[in-house]
UniProtKB/TrEMBL annotation:
Domain of life: Bacteria
Cellular location(s): Cell membrane
Record's bilayer topology term: Multi-pass membrane protein
Keyword Transmembrane helix attributed: yes
Ribosomal protein keyword on record: no
Official protein name in the record: MMPL family transporter
Sequence intervals crossing the membrane: 20-38, 188-208, 215-233, 239-257, 278-308, 314-338, 374-394, 526-548, 560-582, 594-618, 639-661, 667-686
Organism of origin: Microbacterium schleiferi
Segments forming domain SSD: 188-337
Keywords: Cell membrane, Membrane, Transmembrane, Transmembrane helix
UniProt cross-references to InterPro entries, sorted A to Z: MMPL_dom, Mycobact_MmpL, SSD
Amino acid sequence: MSSFLYRVGRFAARRRWTVIIIWVAVVVGASALGGVLGNHLQSSFTVPGTQAQAALDALEQRFPQISGAGAKVVVAAPSGGQVSASENLIATACEDIAALDDVVAVTCPYAMTASGSTAASEGAASQISANGDMAFIAMQLSVAATDIPDSLVTSVTQATAPLADAGLTVAVSGLAASSSSGVDWTELAGMGIAYIVLAITFGSLIAAGIPLVTAALGVGLAASAITIVGALVPVSSTAPVLATMLGLAVGIDYALLITSRHRDNLREGMDPAESVAVAIATAGTAVVFAGMTVMIALVGLGVAGIPFLTVMGLGAAGAVLTALLVAVTLLPAILSLLGRRLIPRGRAERRAAHRSAESARTAGWVKIVTRQPLLTALGVAAVLAVIAIPASGLRLTLPDAGYDPPGSEARVAYDLLDEGFGPGFNGPLLVTADISRTLQIEQALTALENAFQGVPGITAVSQAFPNEALDMAVVTITPDSSPSSDQTAQLVQTLRDRAAAFEATNGFTYEITGQTALAIDISDRLGAAMLPFAIVVVGLSLVLLTIMFRSIAVPITATFGYLLTVGAGLGIATVVFEWGWGASVLGVGKVGPVISFMPILVMAVLFGLAMDYHVFLVSRMRERFVDSGNAHAAVLQGFSASARVITAAALIMFSVFFSFVPGGNAIIQPIALALAVGVLIDAFVVRMTLIPALMALLGARAWWLPRWLEKLLPDADIEGEAVRRMLDQRTWREAERKVRGTGIHAHEATFGESAPLTVDLPESGVLVVHGPEAAAVCAGLSGRIPDVGGDLAVGGRLIPFEREPLSRVSVLVPALPAPTDASTLVEHVRRQVRLNGSRGDHRDRARRAIELWGELAGEPNALDEVDVPMSRLDEHQRWTLDAAAALASAPEVAVLDLRRRSDQSALLGRILRAASPSTTVVVAVGDPVVDEALAVTPHGRAVRVLRADRSVDAPGRQDMTDEVVV
């Protein structure tokens, strides 16, 4: 991973203007396309498989007249007045509304004449409040809530304008989309705080602005992408807000880590382009891993099986992915563009000089928490467990107009209906019954009405009425409790439990549906999904951290800390939003149950962020432990090295998340608060207090891993060890070039599990390898295997980092030729020449290969047999044919394994005479080495003899290591 990111960072740094222009074009293009398509985000929720959703779907098919949205115009008289004083105005408004398109029927509180498709009526007295100061007009629409046109909203506003002009309070419920769909500007406050933290951290206003710019571009692209997708598939209106919140937080944090590492590299005198590449390879590797954990957790929201939540998780994961792509491509381009201007100067340099004092303060804290590690761990765990206790009483619901911002029209209507008609009036239950199996329609309707009379918790039951086909009946129930209360949820369950007895008596059954019942079903589904989701997330945490740190204890401690963080974050959210503690101070828009997907979403996001901080902290501890072997010192030093970055990152995350709390919409507020508090608790209490104590308590046992598991796990290399090795090898290579030039230079090089090898061979020389590990050496020297350790340069290319370029200019002829196919000899040779990447005319090269084959195989008449099928050649003939094609291609490096060949001495002599003077030749021979062949080396080549299982340069055979001129 680190090697790949190094190449990405190096490319972006060298092609900075190209990368920047591409990113700007993509962001602008996506924004323009999103603007053209328009906003199609939805505020409604559906959950297939629930009783409420199934009943709504059936209602849409069999009773389309009432399957559309319902809306109410609430009219309230001035204080002390009576709404009846404006009876004529209200009746006129009813008639004007009934005449509008998309309005199927209107129920007026006062007598009205026929209008549109609504018949004349004497008025519904039940739509006038008991004290007469309030009334409402009920509308049944032909379109769903998500398809209400703006023209209808405007027309209803015009029809009710005379009521407002007369001094009445007018508010519409269920008609306009919820105002919670928009993205609030509160994130600007969070970005301002983030800028201050960055400026203090970097000591530079320019450096502080870079993470904000890249994060803003990433968020802009993510929001545009969600808008585009929303025009094609249903997407929740909350998705852009969540994506913005996460995109800003992780985007700023990731840029902080990479920019900080880049400036450290510049301070040490590294070239800017090289510094950018190294920063992406080291800090960028940790960033990619942390981002992947967040994305996987968000995608894991699909475990709940709820479409809108799955789409929301995918949208948020897309925002994190965008932040990752910006961090590893656009950010290095911007850093490269600024060049050495990011080197700390003046006050910033003096701040850097005084960091030793700051490190001493952080070291003092970690010494305190590790002095009595068991006591610290137990104390932290106990405190967080107590804070998490209120989370057990967290109630869930889906938002209705009561969760809109105070003062909004829908919220005003909601509060008026609650005040004038009771809390259950905003959440009626709809009962549907399939009466297609009975012919006694009147009797069935009466039975359906009577089934709910006198049931505790029900305030009113409407008259049952059938559809035109007389196969479905509907009745409306008004509870005496609010839609989000436990009493309403219990009432729904009670009514469903009584359905079986009703069916046994009447021969047909009923189903409870409506938006309130749907919200209850979704909350139940989400509550049931939390445990499976937690198992998935915790299991994922264990697997990823085991791969990353190659340890058993580290993943367990990380997961334990994560569970404490989640519990504490949800506990504090419960205290604020359920109990109301500090609600007025924080500007909480609604005290009561929180949105149903809040806990599972907080679990997903905090998982990724917790692993983020754990990576930054423990990776430094592991680095120190690998270097020193002292477990306790590694905890102290690793903490001191990472505390500053974790502190800045946590403060930025907190400021971004918390900025969505004061004055935010009631859906996002509990999510934002739980995340903000969770970040602080995880960074300062769990990662910087509990984890050091546990690591100190475990000592060296923290890094134990069974050998069998160590062999199975891939190497994540999050610390950039491969890149550091590459940089060290570059220094070694430059020194070798000055002393010995190019060629093949190996120092303690290993190939797979081979013994370490050391050899120096000038360019165009000959290396003769023998011994049991010759095949691995040949594969490594030709760039065919990645598992190469130690220091190795072939033709100036570092292996394994530049293995691919080497493989393009080298040819390997293994000891055993490939199986034959249906091709002829000449077809095979031409194909081999092309595969060898030879320059020039392939036909000429192929002809030369066939001539050489005649010499190597002892077939003087080979040219007369070019059409012979390959299947007629024996193994030796096929091998020499491949060898001839390799030599005719004139590669930089030709590696030939002769160990299965007979008469290796003569064959080696012929190969060396046929090889191009510019080709470096490596041959593997049997044991003992055929000394006489070396005496016929042409072209003035230098010869090295190497035993492949010893780190020697042919000891005792110095006569064979000098140049031999023939």
